[in-house]
Automatic annotation (TrEMBL):
PANTHER family hit by this protein: D-GLUCOSIDE 3-DEHYDROGENASE, UDP-N-ACETYL-2-AMINO-2-DEOXY-D-GLUCURONATE OXIDASE
InterPro entries cross-referenced by the UniProt entry: Gfo/Idh/MocA-like_OxRdtase_N, Gfo/Idh/MocA_Oxidoreductase, GFO_IDH_MocA-like_dom, NAD(P)-bd_dom_sf
Gene3D superfamilies: Dihydrodipicolinate Reductase, domain 2, NAD(P)-binding Rossmann-like Domain
Origin species: Saccharibacillus endophyticus
Name of a matching Pfam family: GFO_IDH_MocA
Official protein name in the record: Oxidoreductase
Length: 373
């Protein structure tokens, strides 16, 4: 079979660390072009990775190259616009998280995806780690029982991703740490919980470090006098219609000992923690409490390519269950919209019964990491 043509939109940090490497490794993918409004960035990345064509306009690139797949790795506010344009030109889209700034945009993406007959996958790489794949299967096999309580967080001591850049500009990012790091770890907790309908969100957001020049994430530079109108911390609570609760704990900057990213799940039959990448399982047998630690075999190739291989396989075989489809981005956007509204009004925000349109369901995780777990 011919190789599928792949093109990259947005040649910044994440594209370099993740997308270009992942797709380049796949035997059935041909990387045909890179686009960035900053053509020098596109050219430099293309030179580093032997990619033949560069563009500064994504519409021109899509029309000229007719790719089968594009990655959208631009600032958040462009995700919806570019994804819809690509879909309308018959292109499958691997869009970085968050899928959109708001639920309304995500709804339009789902509609555009349905019209196009193509696929949209969100770049939720934390769902593709060996630990997450193993834990999802462990949960789907019933080992935790009903997950009645969970905690999700990503707290950094000095982790502002460029003070004054697009990341701290609400119009371009959609929000601060909640939408940035929450897109990974709120998502992961709700994914493990089976994405139940949300009853209400109650939260507070804070801006304690916006004037502080010392809390940029290592390796990220800021822009002097750039906009900083988003939160650097978000703490709150999500109540779920199945009776479960989810506590949220997020900061780009805080006076804490060290960075921690985690999901803790408490179920009627068992529990699990995934803390800084380490998975532990808890249970009981014959009246004795048990601690379990899966010995996961790490396959470096699959660690690098799992997310990308999965998307290409789902494009080639539509019967496969996509792990991170656009609907999950809509679900997350509804939670985020409600959380920010709660922070603004000071009151819990009840989601309409029809709002989280359906419980996304606890669909079997079709992804198999090729026996590496
Ligand atoms: N999955 C992850 O772990 C992860 C990690 C980091 C970032 N991200 C996401 O990836 C996206 C990009 O983040 P980043 O850190 O790479 O940002 P970045 O600022 O380093 O890169 C964004 C790039 O997009 C380019 N760009 C802007 N407008 C464009 C347009 N109209 N057409 C083409 N290119 C355009 C910019 O010039 C820049 O090179 C964000 O949505 C972010 O949330 C995800």
């Amino acid at each position: 079979m011919d190789k599928l043509k792949y093109a990259l939109i947005g040649a910044g940090g994440n594209a370099e660390k993740k997308h270009i490497h992942g797709y380049k490794e796949l035997h059935d993918i041909e990387v045909v072009a890179i686009c960035d409004v900053d053509i020098d960035k596109a050219s430099a990345m293309a030179a580093r990775h032997n990619v033949p064509n560069v563009y500064s306009d994504y519409k021109e690139m899509i029309q000229a190259e007719r790719p089968d797949i594009v990655s959208v790795v631009t600032p958040n506010f462009l995700h919806a616009e570019i994804t819809e344009y690509a879909l309308s030109h018959g292109v499958n889209v691997h869009c970085e998280k968050p899928l959109s700034l708001h639920a309304e945009e995500a709804r339009h993406i789902v509609e555009a995806r349905n019209r196009s007959g193509k696929q949209v996958m969100i770049g939720l790489n934390n769902r593709f780690t060996n630990e997450a794949i193993y834990l999802k299967k462990w949960i789907d096999d019933g080992n935790l029982g009903h997950i009645y309580s969970a905690k999700a967080g990503w707290v950094r001591r000095s982790g502002i991703p460029g003070r004054g850049t697009w990341f701290t500009d609400k119009a371009r990012a959609g929000g601060g740490v909640l939408i940035d790091l929450g897109a990974h770890y709120i998502d992961l907790a709700l994914y493990f919980m089976g994405m139940p309908k949300v009853s209400y969100a109650a939260g507070r957001i804070y801006q304690n470090f916006m004037q502080t020049g010392t809390r940029n994430r290592h390796g990220y530079t800021g822009i002097e006098n750039g906009i900083f109108d988003v939160e650097d911390a978000a703490h709150g609570y999500i109540a779920l219609e199945n009776g479960a609760s989810l506590a949220l704990d997020f900061s780009w900057a805080a006076n804490i000992e060290e960075e921690r990213f985690y999901v803790e799940l408490m179920g009627t039959k068992g529990g699990a923690t995934l803390i800084n990448g380490t998975l532990n399982l808890f249970g009981e047998h014959n009246g004795i409490c048990l601690d379990m630690k899966p010995k996961l075999k790490i396959n470096p190739f699959l660690q690098l390519t799992g997310e990308f291989r999965h998307f290409v396989d789902c494009i080639k075989d539509e019967k496969q269950n996509l792990i991170a489809p656009a609907e999950h981005g809509l679900y997350f956007a509804e939670v985020v919209d409600a959380f920010y509204e709660s922070a603004e009004t000071g009151l819990p925000v009840v989601l309409n019964a029809g709002s989280t349109e359906k419980s996304i369901g606890n669909e079997a995780n079709a992804f198999n990491a090729g026996g590496n777990v």
